[in-house]
Automatic annotation (TrEMBL):
Domain Phosphatidic acid phosphatase type 2/haloperoxidase: 119-241
Record has Signal as a keyword: yes
Protein name: Phosphatase PAP2 family protein
Signal peptide start-end: 1-20
Sections of the chain in a coiled coil: none
Keywords linked to the UniProt accession: Signal
Lineage: Bacteria, Pseudomonadati, Bacteroidota, Flavobacteriia, Flavobacteriales
Length: 270
């Protein structure tokens, strides 16, 4: 009888712990601390590169020719719209708030620290990749080809940061991170298609208006979209742990001494 009570107590304890730790992810303070530190450090280094970036000279500006641009991008050369730039900031801001809505989910809210840690890790990774690239690569934005634009803006170092779209990359990281985490916590939930569709649509909208604003060419947006989405998905995926599984089943047989036995078998896999 005492053995049965012990087994029942053990089962209740394991079941309770499983419910309290109902998360598909794991966090390692050493590995994740290094990762997060590298992301933040890389972002700071990239910002330094951007600040020290030089603009183009008048001779280089006069040498620019739309015909030198690939066909996939040429149509956007000369685009310039302040209103489109302002509109792009709306879905851009919404995308950052999207993952935070998941905290209204009780299971995710119970692991807020882990969730926010992964989110910050995702954003810092995207920020590091973008800022370092933008600081090292010189590529004129579409608006630089607008001959009616003020000369000081065309010559500024900001005009040489077309490759690649940081707005789209960050937006895609946030929305795809939210969709990935929601799906991992709710693998059998209905309507996941709409979650992923919204995750894809928001950064696409940002990209559309960034092109109309003359900030980026199509390939800049596509590359930013791909890198951002990949980061938003891969960071949670790399944190996933195998689901723990406790199985209890009746068993019977004959032991090595020839005696028959009956009992309960318990296995725990993780």
């Amino acid at each position: 009888m005492k053995k049965i009570l012990f087994i029942l107590t053990l089962l209740i304890t394991i079941s309770s712990n499983a419910q309290q730790n109902n998360t598909p992810y794991e966090w390692n303070w050493i590995k994740d601390g290094i990762w997060l530190g590298a992301g933040l450090g890389g972002s700071a280094y990239g910002l330094m590169l951007i600040q020290d970036k030089e603009g183009i000279t008048m001779a280089e500006l006069n040498a620019l020719d739309k015909n030198d641009i690939s066909r996939i991008n040429r149509w956007a050369a000369g685009y310039n719209s302040e209103s489109a730039s302002s509109i792009s900031d709306i879905p851009f801001a919404v995308s950052f708030a999207a993952p935070l809505v998941l905290l209204f989910n009780d299971d995710i809210n119970d692991h807020t620290g882990q969730f926010l840690g992964m989110y910050l890790e995702s954003l810092s990774t995207t920020a590091a990749l973008f800022s370092i690239t933008a600081g090292l690569v010189d590529k004129s934005r579409p608006y630089v080809y607008d001959e009616n634009l003020k000369m000081d803006r065309r010559l500024s170092n900001s005009g040489q940061r077309s490759f690649y779209s940081g707005h789209v990359a960050a937006s895609a990281t946030a929305t795809f991170f939210a969709a990935k985490v929601y799906s991992d916590y709710n693998p059998d939930a209905e309507g996941k298609f709409f979650i992923w569709a919204a995750a894809a649509a928001v950064p696409a909208t940002v990209g559309y208006f960034r092109i109309k604003a003359g900030q980026h060419f199509l390939t800049d947006v596509l590359i930013g979209y791909g890198l951002g989405a990949a980061t938003g998905i891969l960071v949670p995926e790399l944190h996933k742990t195998k689901d723990a599984s406790l199985r209890v089943s009746p068993t019977a047989g004959r032991n090595f001494s020839g005696d028959d036995y009956r009992g309960v078998a318990m296995s725990y896999t993780f």
